[in-house]
From TrEMBL:
<dbReference type="InterPro" id="IPR001647">
    <property type="entry name" value="HTH_TetR"/>
</dbReference>
<dbReference type="InterPro" id="IPR009057">
    <property type="entry name" value="Homeodomain-like_sf"/>
</dbReference>
<protein>
    <recommendedName>
        <fullName>HTH tetR-type domain-containing protein</fullName>
    </recommendedName>
</protein>
<feature type="DNA-binding region" description="H-T-H motif">
    <location>
        <begin position="32"/>
        <end position="51"/>
    </location>
</feature>
<keyword id="KW-0238">DNA-binding</keyword>
<feature type="domain" description="HTH tetR-type">
    <location>
        <begin position="9"/>
        <end position="69"/>
    </location>
</feature>
Length: 189
């Protein structure tokens, strides 16, 4: 009985890991079940038996990927600009290219929109959590505008411009992002 339960759990883990791996590379929920099955070393029927449905499979896999990303980005304390920039770059170096490709497909796909919206919401929350405390003395209207500016300064498109388009070494690109952040949070008398 125990061996059967362990084998079933191993199959379940392989199925969801295969789906999450595909999501990490493509950030799409229109991935074929055949691709998941091949990655897990099982049949499509087994994938559906384990997951229940394609929608459930990708909901669980997407939650797994989001949890990994959240863990990856949690190494910075509020107000620590250097750590915030480092963790953003760690994330963008791993996922930035796939995120950029996904964003390019947003207008042409109803499947991609919800994934992109989750990313936007989480990015803004993280900017507010990490850099918002640096704006504590600003009036609400100025603070809201500054948060918008920080969201832009720390965005994956900024990383893409610096690293991919301009070809800057990571250290130089990080220094540029820090400069933008510091320019925004600098108190004006």
């Amino acid at each position: 009985m125990r061996a059967r339960a362990e084998a079933a759990e191993d199959t379940r883990r392989r199925v969801f890991d295969a789906a999450a791996d595909l999501l990490r590379r493509r950030l799409r929920v229109d991935i074929r079940l055949e691709d998941v099955a091949a990655g897990a070393g099982v049949s499509v029927q087994t994938v559906l038996r384990v997951a229940g449905s394609k929608a459930d499979l990708f909901r669980v896999a997407f939650d797994q990927v989001l949890s990994e990303i959240t863990g990856q980005l949690s190494d910075a304390e509020p107000g620590d600009v250097d750590a915030a920039v480092r963790t953003w770059f760690d994330h963008y170096e791993q996922f930035g290219d796939v995120v950029i490709r996904t964003l390019a497909e947003e207008a042409d796909s109803t499947v991609v929109g919800p994934i992109v919206e989750v990313g936007r919401t989480k990015h803004r929350q993280r900017v507010e959590q990490l850099l918002g405390p640096l704006l504590a003395t600003r009036p609400a209207e100025q603070r809201d505008r500054a948060i918008d500016a920080l969201v832009c300064a720390c965005d994956v498109y900024t990383w893409k411009l610096l690293r991919r388009d301009f070809g800057r070494p990571r250290a130089d690109a990080e220094a540029t992002m820090r400069l933008m952040i510091e320019s925004i949070v600098e108190t004006r008398e």
